[in-house]
């Protein structure tokens, strides 16, 4: 085999591997998507039918049984709301830790991450009681607070590692030019970090959007986001696969579309931030 | 009159003592260069003056105002960084005007200042470009322009030329010298390159291990170093240092034994008591080759021809080689034994603590 052929083979093999991984990852989503257009009977038939007459019945039923727009709005408010609040807290935190590290900065970062190691269910009872006592059960406020706290460590970590790679001299130059800490963050750090902040925000939004544990435990109907809506389709009356799939497809759709659009922005943002 | 006064400045990093009591006064309009080997504290000193590092003792006074605890942004100093540190997301024009916009200068005035600075640094055509679209030399000029446009009290330069290639470095060095002449603003410049220090400075501050080793004009440092460290640091090729283990006084002269050969040194040029041993320092250009007589003789090991001059490496003994400056087209051959005459008025003696124990006579 010549060197050229070896190289070609390598390209083909990596391509093949990438496609396999991509298909394995994509398959459940694809299956959910086509199941949502089947009848309940087709959905549980063995072997599964790949060719069938698609129906929109499930979507109609889902829309009749639960108010999709209501739940979608709850998801939007909680995920965007908590992400914005988390960013407002995390940006100054990451800035100070990245540019003015103290002796305990590493420890604080580790401690923040360690809060993610505790299973959420471990604090379910105290948080439930707090929410009950403050009248926060089934409110978007409760979810926004919980989501903010839940994602804060990850957001601080991501921003911290990005800020740390910004050349320190650029901030020092700004300081010499007469910039106050506020000017430094707003006029230098933030414009240079648009890409990093958008990708962090996107991750946080996705995590909130897909969050189910707290949504299920702290909300009933008023503040229930889409994840809670999906769950209502695995009810005591039995599983309705087709309807469940339809509900899930509806729940995923906005965030997938949003991510699709942001992807372009993100790529742009990331190359824009390139310093050298 | 003193403009910038540094008094007993200290800087500790945990257990590391980076600045050990720096005392220095700089007058208005002076071009002062901090030079020293890496780790000597020159950058730390500059950054402490800038306020980018906090001092742990002593104080800094600028134009009659104590700025030791003042934030960098309020010190009215401008700094040019080694990495240029341009704002990557701003155009050249925005980079130049950033400080003015922060200071809320009027748009018309900003426009005028940016125009005049960009004209003087030949940046006019580049104003709308982003830093990444500029060459190294252009970025350097933008960084300098960004400092000039503010008309600060003092310019601080932190090894500004070390990222440029050799030819451009020489050119920018010249531009900086011209700039200083034109603006007349006080400049403090950090470098590890002694040629930059010698050519740019009104006064050179040589730092070593967090302390000032010597302060003086370039020529003072060259001719009258205080210590062996300064003598070796300044000058290319280095000053020759030859140990002398036997020194005997004969009336008005000292007979100094250099590896079995004797040189005669006038006793009135000695500071302090007669030493038992010393290190004799002679610069390569203070020795000449002679046909007969002379003070020392040795065997030529190697001749380096530089075109404008030549350097002969002369073996005095098996483990002591000295360098002598020779005429450009010298006919010296390797292995040849030659005699050399030493210009005794330029010879320096160091004691075993590497301090100077001789006096250089005043130049006539």
UniProtKB/TrEMBL annotation, chain A:
Keywords: Cell membrane, Membrane, Transmembrane, Transmembrane helix, Transport
Topology in membrane: Multi-pass membrane protein
Keyword Mitochondrion: no
Organism: Marinomonas arctica
Pfam family, one: BPD_transp_1
GO CC terms in record: plasma membrane
Occurrences of domain ABC transmembrane type-1 (ranges): 72-262
Protein name according to UniProt: Carbohydrate ABC transporter permease
Annotated compartments: Cell membrane
Gene Ontology biological process terms in this record: transmembrane transport
Transmembrane spans: 12-34, 76-96, 108-130, 142-163, 184-207, 239-262
Family affiliation: Belongs to the binding-protein-dependent transport system permease family. MalFG subfamily.
PANTHER family for this protein: INNER MEMBRANE ABC TRANSPORTER PERMEASE PROTEIN YCJP, MALTOSE TRANSPORT SYSTEM PERMEASE-RELATED
Automatic annotation (TrEMBL), chain B:
Molecular functions per Gene Ontology: ABC-type maltose transporter activity; ATP binding; ATP hydrolysis activity
InterPro entries to which the protein is assigned, alphabetical: AAA+_ATPase, ABC_transporter-like_ATP-bd, ABC_transporter-like_CS, ABC_transpr_MalK-like, ABC_transpr_MalK/UgpC-like, Mo/tungstate-bd_C_term_dom, NA-bd_OB-fold, P-loop_NTPase
Keyword terms of this UniProt record: ATP-binding, Nucleotide-binding, Sugar transport, Transport
ABC transporter domain: residues covered: 4-234
Cross-referenced PROSITE patterns: ABC_TRANSPORTER_1, ABC_TRANSPORTER_2
Top-level taxon of the source organism: Bacteria
One Pfam family here: TOBE_2
A GO cellular-component term linked to this record: ATP-binding cassette (ABC) transporter complex, substrate-binding subunit-containing
SMART domains from the UniProt entry: AAA (SM00382)
NCBIfam families in UniProt: PRK11650.1
Protein name, per record: sn-glycerol-3-phosphate ABC transporter ATP-binding protein UgpC
Organism this protein belongs to: Marinomonas arctica
Lineage: Bacteria, Pseudomonadati, Pseudomonadota, Gammaproteobacteria, Oceanospirillales
Gene for this chain: ugpC
